Amino acid sequence: MTNIPRACVIGNPISHSLSPKLHTYWLNRYGIEGEYTALQVTEDKLEETLRRLPSQGFIGANVTIPHKVSVMQFADQITDRATLIGAANTLIFKEDGRIFADNTDGYGFMANLRQGAPDWDPKAGPAAIFGAGGAARAIIVALADAGVPQIIISNRTRPKAEALRADFGARVSVVDWVQADKMLEEANTVINTTSLGMAGAQEFKVSLNGLQPKTVVTDIVYTPLRTPFLDAAEKKGCITVDGLGMLLHQGVPGFERWFGQRPEVDEATRRAVLG
Ligand code: ATR
After folding, report:
1. How many domains does the chain have?
2. DSSP state of 211
3. pTM of model > 0.90
4. Residue from 40, 39, 37 nearest 21 by CA
5. The Cα angle at residue 85 between residues 239 and 133, in degrees rounded to 5
6. Bridging pattern class, strands 77-78 and 58-63
């Protein structure tokens, strides 16, 4: 077995993950001796895998679908933001075998938005969110942290949006899916956190007539990079930010903790991951 520091991404399925490309690019770019691989792990093997990895030279891991929630039960230490979100995507294996869990999805979302729309002011008005799944939870926590005054959620299954309001309090309100267009009129920021518009998934069919020019609009879908949702927003005169940067930025804190170098997210990084 080699002694070089190793990290991986754990999920199922995992073959489409871009994380190995991203981290391997960074390792090469900074001349760091290390390795980052993809590991397909089923739910019943999750604990055993996590207990075994440190003895095989692994210093940490990213966690993706479907293990982001269940991995929390095996962590010895959990950051406040991961607790608040109820899921973890970044693990650090301590030398004594303990597992430290963090969630960097909200950080990745925010860093992408700030990079793609440098003049965006979170405090300038409400944020409107399509969707109420795991990604929406991480994004709500990040938006609230950044000082967004009001967060309006619309989800096909309304009770899931109501559950987020119950968790996150008075700053959050819910609009019916068939009336989602209404939440756009007053929004300063609009975010699609659903899978609608993703290659192979259903189209985004909700009316976007309420969108106002200059609104910052972003999509967490990045296949395709320019989703129909972003195209429609651009036609309305909005400032659009694609979702690839969220994936790239969420990898930054993990890479820094594991390999001791804070990596850049720039055009070269985007090209390396897309190439
Ligand atoms: P993630 O962790 O990526 O957020 P998720 O937790 O499965 O994934 O959430 C997926 C989101 O996409 C949900 O808000 C889901 O809406 P429901 O709660 O009604 O299922 C939304 N979504 C998926 N397919 C959809 C569709 N065809 N129409 C509308 N919303 C959809």
Report:
1. 2
2. P
3. yes
4. 37
5. 65
6. unpaired
Pocket of ligand 1 (CB under 6 A): 131-136, 155-157, 160, 193-196, 202
Cα separation, 135 vs 192, whole angstroms: 10
Report the percentage of the chain scoring pLDDT > 70. 99
Angle at which helix 134-145 crosses helix 158-168, to 10 degrees, equals: 30
**159 and 237 inside one domain:** yes
Q: Residue 61's beta-bridge partner residues? A: 8, 91
- Residues 120 and 82 reside in one and the same domain: no
Which of 64, 195, 227 has most ligand 1 atoms within 8 Å of its beta carbon, as the pocket-test mutant?
A: 195
- CA 202 – ligand 1 centroid, Å: 11
- Does residue 137 sit in the same domain as residue 165? yes
Domain extent at residue 95: 6-103
Domain of residue 80, CATH code: 3.40.50.10860
pLDDT, tens digit, 9 for 90 and up, residues 57-83:
999 999 999 999 999 999 999 999 999
Ligand 1 atom closest to the Cα of residue 132 is 14
- Is there a domain that residue 116 lies in? yes
Domain-located, residue 95: yes
CA distance linking residue 263 with residue 245, whole number of Å: 13
Are 177 and 232 within one domain? yes
Residues with a known catalytic role: 68
154 sits in which H/E element: strand 151-154
